[in-house]
User: Fold this.
Amino acid sequence: MISSGSLLYIAASFLVSFATAWWIFKFVLQIAVDKNIVDNPNARKLQKEPIPVLGGVAVAFGIIASTVVGSMFCDMSQVYPLICIMMIMLYVGVMDDILELSPRLRLVIEILVVLALIYTTGFAIDDFHGLWGIGRLPKWLAVSLTVFAGVGIINAINMVDGVNGLCSGYCIFVCTVFGVFASYGETAATFLAAACIGALIPFLCHNIFGAKSKMFIGDGGTLLMGTVMTYFVIDCLHGGSPAETARNENLGLVPFALSVLAVPVFDTVRVMTVRMLHGKSPFSSDKSHLHHLLFEFHFSHIGTTCTEILLNMLVVGVWWTVYALGASIDVQLYAVLLMGFGVTFGLYGYLTCIRKRDTRFYHTLLRFGDRTHVGHSKWFLKFRDLLDRE
Assistant:
């Protein structure tokens, strides 16, 4: 378990990241406004006016500053290759925000980036840790699996960025869970998780509550955070990881990692499957995500964000309950799969069905969705004024 001294260092890492991101945010926002680097509204998007789209740059500044501080107290050499790769993804994402890169080019870059992550850190998803009785994997299979999983995670995080606060709020949740889990092995991943949380909170505040100070995280931010999420999964699942040495015998690392990423991963699988069944590219744009459907049920941005994070917390809670009851690693995976499909495929199908049938419960959900709109409440407006005055 992590020592009390390390907790102080982690707190320092969080505070440095938070302060840096909060301070740099206004400068990045001004650059985005001056250079007209904005996300323009269209039929697919939910905003009604152009919004600056360089939030990922502010988040990156916070993480890098915190990593420098963390290196004074912990061996962060394992994270240095990741920082370089994060900067590459930030650069690619910002270029995509400005120039709109083709999905094929982005896919190639994502594959190369995950390969770079594998060969610079020396780690891959090369061990199933007892799932289905499987241990270490051959190198070729481990590399292929890691690339497939990494590209999937990066795109899942990118696709969840359709609602104010959803991407950043969800990433804060993931970093918290993986950071706490990594703390049992006292790894650099804990410091990185604290840095990410600290950098994301200022952006989250402006993204949700700001009016004049509102800025989207952009593809630069989603690709950067998708790369971090991929690193957390690799750090958790590679053979001989600190998580493996610190875990109990019956704790399923694969089911755990999948449960933490359940909602964006399973919703992305659902969306891509439906697109391909309709003869479309899986990377084409539409309004078929779960958050789009929640909006049709009158949910606000805050309501949609909280709902999806709570659904993911439910999946993690079910995994933990099944594990605590002594179920095998295989059963833990099946429980996560069942819940993951249930809160995405099942929920989307059910909500679509009651909307078409115009049931009484449908109208109940509409009324509930209306109550999630808190944008005109006094506390919301006061916080908005505070942020916009900076």
